[in-house]
Amino acid sequence: MAGRRARTGRGWDASPPRAGDATPRPRRGRRAVGSATDPGDPASTDPQEASASGVPAPGVSRGGAGATRRARGSARDEAAAAPRDEAEVAREICLRQLAVRPRTRAELTAALARRGISEETANQVLDRYDEVGIIDDAAFARAWVSSRHIGRGLARRALANELRQRGVDGETASAALSELDEATEAETARALVERKLRTARGEPDAVFRRLVGMLARKGYPAGVAIRAVKDAIAAQSAEAAEFAEQIDADALADAEGEVDR
Are the C-beta atoms of residues 24 and 17 closer than 8 Å to each other? Predict the structure, then answer.
């Protein structure tokens, strides 16, 4: 070994530690095998950390966890595939329909038929709804007539057509429409015309015919419509009153009636 400097510290010729020297520290970045932080030691794995990271906890294999998930999914699929009571399904359909707006019995019957509910089950459910007042065609008809007349200015003829389309029978519809008398109908027609006249443009004759047509579409009889428009135009000005004076409401009403027939 002459000519060579003696190596100290680490190396092939390192001297053994002397008594009193500090215990050598392990090299940084390496962990002692078998220590509590050794990743290879199963005992160092925290079950909660393992669960959060997707690593199975000690004693639980990956296959076992997957089997548990598959079993739970299978149970859910079986519950979803289990046949439901038809009456329960029918009630859910009806309640969804009624949540949008009131419905007649005929409307609910049609909705249940579209969803494949049997006629027997539909009748059972709807009979019960009739008993407890959830559906009431008479109340529906009265509310419909009131709201559509006030909100849209519809006359009895148009309202009768709408009730018929919703399955309300003739007797029930007539009872509801009887609450709308002729005087109220004429007042509503006049109010509609006066509101339209504020923005109407054109020759008096053209305006007159346009307004009569508007009332006719809302279901007003020809006589009611013509008189309402004539009176409203006459109240505008002297010139308009002169034009209105030339209108023979009865003759025009008779002519319109012939056309309708």
Answer: yes
Whether residue 98 is found in the same domain as residue 150: no
Q: Is the same domain home to 127 and 163?
A: no
DSSP annotation of 77: H
Instruction: Split the chain (261 residues) into runs of 10 and give each run's mean pLDDT.
Output: 48 51 53 47 49 51 63 62 83 96 96 96 96 95 96 96 96 95 94 92 86 95 92 81 73 56 48
104 is in which domain, residue-wise? 86-135
Q: Where are the alpha helices (DSSP H) in the chain?
A: 47-53, 62-81, 86-100, 105-114, 119-132, 137-152, 156-165, 170-177, 182-197, 204-217, 222-234, 238-245, 249-260
Nearest C-alpha neighbor of 219 from the set 166, 252, 258, 177:
177
140 within 8 A of 106, measured Cβ to Cβ: no
Q: What is the CA radius of gyration of the chain?
A: 44
In the numeric block, which tokens belong to residue 177? 């429409």
CA pair distance 93, 87, nearest whole angstrom: 10
Nearest-angstrom CA–CA distance, 187 and 221: 13
Q: Which residues contact 170 (CB under 8 A, 6 or more apart)?
A: 164
Are 189 and 247 found together in one domain? yes
Please give the tally of structural domains in the chain. Answer: 3
